[in-house]
């Protein structure tokens, strides 16, 4: 009687760790076979009304569907990167976005990878006497919560 064949179920590598073939279009110095792929970026046209001030936006090919889907659902992005197999894909969201759970749900509709989500806010710091509460928020570096509360008033 032959011994049963040993099988080992090995789960596939998570999608976010699988290297894509996207070229790093904004870092041409990194375009080498060991760092970057050969698939060119996708040029998307943002819909009107999102506040994206460019006629076209270059996006890594493997996340272009995510960015387009977010835009179609009125979620503006300021920047994106697929991570090129070295890091998680990431998106920088517009400062007006508040519902990050909804953003994650929208991403999951078209991509099963985990995305790092960031949000960028322009904040004037170190201004002793702001011209108005809306044009500048004084921040002395001591209390980040206080500064954030002042921004959202």
List the helices and strands and how they pair.
Layout: E1 42-44, E2 57-59, H1 64-72, E3 77-81, E4 90-93, H2 100-110, E5 116-119, H3 144-151
Parallel strand pairs: 4-5
Antiparallel strand pairs: 1-2, 3-4
Helix pairs in contact: 1-2
Concise summary:
With 153 residues, the chain is of the alpha+beta class. The chain has helices spanning 64-72, 100-110, 144-151, and strands spanning 42-44, 57-59, 77-81, 90-93, 116-119. The protein is 18% helix and 12% strand.
How is this structure best described in words?
- With 153 residues, this protein is of the alpha+beta class.
- It has two domains: 16-119, no CATH class; 122-153, no CATH class.
- The chain has three helices and five strands, in the order E-E-H-E-E-H-E-H.
- It has helices at residues 64-72, 100-110, 144-151; strands at 42-44, 57-59, 77-81, 90-93, 116-119.
- The strands form two sheets. The chain has a three-stranded mixed sheet, covered by helices on one side. The chain has a two-stranded antiparallel sheet with strand order 1-2.
- The longest helix is centred in the last third of the chain and has 11 residues, at 100-110.
- The protein starts with 41 loop residues before the first strand and ends with a helix.
């Amino acid at each position: 009687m032959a011994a049963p064949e040993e099988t080992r179920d090995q789960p596939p590598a998570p999608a976010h760790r699988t290297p894509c073939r996207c070229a790093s279009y904004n870092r041409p110095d990194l375009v080498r076979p060991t760092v970057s792929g050969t698939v060119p970026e996708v040029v998307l046209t943002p819909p009107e009304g999102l506040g994206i001030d460019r006629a076209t936006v270059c996006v890594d090919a493997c996340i272009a569907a995510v960015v387009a889907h977010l835009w179609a659902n009125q979620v503006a992005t300021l920047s994106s990167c697929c991570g090129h197999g070295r890091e998680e894909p990431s998106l920088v969201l517009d400062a007006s976005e508040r519902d990050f759970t909804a953003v994650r749900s929208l991403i999951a509709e078209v991509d099963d990878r985990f995305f790092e989500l960031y949000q960028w806010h322009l904040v004037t710091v170190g201004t002793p006497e702001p011209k108005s509460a809306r044009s500048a928020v004084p921040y002395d570096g001591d209390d980040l919560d206080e500064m954030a509360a002042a921004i959202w008033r």
